[in-house]
Amino acid sequence: MSEDRSSRPACARKSAEIAVALLLVLLGAIVIYDSLRLGARWGGDGPQPGYFPFYVGLLICLSSALNLLKALTIRPERDRAFVEVGQLKLVLVVLVPTVIYVGLVGWLGIYFSSAVFVALFMRRLGKYAWWKALAVGVGNSVAFLLIFEVWFQVPLPKGPLEALLGLD
């Protein structure tokens, strides 16, 4: 019975195409707006800062509008499943924690957030023992600290824990 539920369509192709097209039209409009704010003309000394981004945004909007029109013409009998419930769950198992991780990097710093992220993924998805997951999570962050901060001297976002350890 659970197989029947997981093989149910979560989203139809037409809906997905429309959503992506609208999202990209919005993205292109944001690029155009900001390009106009910067200046999107050809000045006496060459292009203004927003000249090329303006045309990129325009191309994004035009191609997305064409995709939107094409999506709106998909007939119901040709509108098959874009993703099934089971497939969507598998994607969300990875996507949701990744979005949370990215959001926490600004507050907690990349090293602490990465150690927790790797350890939780190993524990939850890999079914590793806690001590192995924590060892790899911490070891991964220490390796990146050495590579970026010490060897390449590229500072990465740090949080309160790194400041307590004197890595500020």
In short, what is this structure?
The chain has 168 residues and is mainly alpha-helical.
Descriptive keywords:
single chain, 168 residues, mainly alpha, two-stranded antiparallel ribbon, 7 helices, 4 strands, 7% strand
Q: What does it look like?
A:
This protein has helices at 2-6, 13-38, 51-72, 85-108, 110-124, 130-151, 160-164, and strands at residues 9-12, 42-43, 46-47, 81-84. The protein has 168 residues and is mainly alpha-helical. The chain folds into two domains: 11-82; 85-164, no CATH class. It has a two-stranded antiparallel sheet with strand order 1-4. A two-stranded antiparallel sheet has the order 2-3. A hairpin with a 2-residue loop joins strand 2 (42-43) and strand 3. Helix 2 (13-38) runs antiparallel to helix 3 and helix 5 (110-124) packs antiparallel against helix 6 (130-151). It is flat.
Produce the secondary structure layout.
Blueprint: H1 2-6, E1 9-12, H2 13-38, E2 42-43, E3 46-47, H3 51-72, E4 81-84, H4 85-108, H5 110-124, H6 130-151, H7 160-164
Helix pairs in contact: 2-3, 4-5, 5-6
What is the overall number of helices? 7
Q: What is the global morphology?
A: flat
Question: Major sheet: size, sense and barrel closure?
Answer: 2 strands, antiparallel
Beta-strand percent range:
5-15%
Overall pLDDT score: 93
Give the uncertain stretches in residue-range form.
none
How many DSSP-defined strands? Answer: 4
Instruction: Kindly report the spatial arrangement of strands forming the biggest sheet.
Output: 1-4
Terminal CA distance: 54 Å
Q: Order of helices and strands, N to C?
A: HEHEEHEHHHH
Number of domains: 2
Can you give the helix content as a percent range? Answer: over 70%
Radius of gyration: 23 Å
Structural class: mainly alpha
